[in-house]
Amino acid sequence: MHDFQILFDHGEHSELLDPVYSRYGKLGFPHPPQDRPWIYSNFVQSLDGLVSLLGLDASGGDISQSEEDRWLMDLLRAHADGILLGLGTLVTETRLGRPRPRGPVFRIADPVLRQLRDKLHRGPERNIFVTGATRLRFEDFAVFDGEKVETCVVTTASGAELLEPQRSTHPHVNVVVAGEGSLVDLPLALGILREKFGFQRLLCEGGPTLYSNLLREGLIDEKFLTVAPVEAGQQVPALSRAPDESFVRPTIFPGEGFDKEHMVRWEWLSCRKVGDHQFHRFRRRAAAR
5-284 in CATH: which number? Predict the structure, then answer.
């Protein structure tokens, strides 16, 4: 694995002096807001803006194909109190059967970066899944076994009722209720995660639906974006298309967007490269008054 070439970096200094940063450079974060955690996202996309190829190559790793990108994901996980994920991301990764039939556990793979997490006092690794009223079965997914990470489900009152029968077999899964019907009240949920659990920083790893919902609510504070030197086109090739799957590949921000006056504006905080891969960091600019 290669070191990152720093083109520029206007971010904060790391809170620790640790040799692990020599490969990447400084990585510090500002203080979180008083009423919720600081939220940063991490995505990889192609040059034409795609975050998934769909089909059997639906993960971000199929686009990045980069050891450095995978290592950076672990570095960012080491600094977060927990990883925010939509349930669709878990279902998609589980369908791929990688690395195990009951799906992934989103955790740090690099032992050196697990040690860094301990030095940063971020506590146990945590996966936080956001879903509305859905028929989620904990037993279908390895991540809810409680052996490697703590898990939390953020859902609505209706969703919590559906999950209640599983509390006897999975008492270790925390359930946070925020909202009614099928839509999670994201500002309320993040306020609960800050007040009840003391979370100061959360890493959003997707999918695009969760990210875009957080962005519309003004809840994404910064984003890390790997740009892979590939183009694939938005329409899935006919021979690769699953019969029950969309043929339009997703971008980071699906669904209804903003008009020109309300577009989200970002400060380009840092830029690195390894070979032809670009590694960017952006911080959201305050809305103009």
Answer: 3.40.430.10
What pTM did the predictor assign?
A: 0.95
Q: What is the pLDDT along the chain (289 residues), one digit of tens a residue?
A: 999 999 999 999 999 999 999 999 999 999 999 999 999 999 999 999 999 998 888 899 999 999 999 999 999 999 999 999 999 999 989 988 777 789 999 999 999 999 999 999 999 999 999 998 778 999 999 999 998 999 999 999 999 999 999 999 999 999 999 998 889 999 999 999 999 999 999 999 989 999 999 999 999 999 999 999 999 999 988 776 766 667 899 999 998 899 999 999 999 999 999 999 999 999 999 875 5
Q: Which two tokens stand for residue 14?
A: 């790391």
Q: Which are the contacts of 173, defined by CB distance < 8 A and separation ≥ 6?
A: 138, 144, 146, 151, 152, 153, 166, 167
What are the residue ranges spanned by the domains of the chain? 5-284
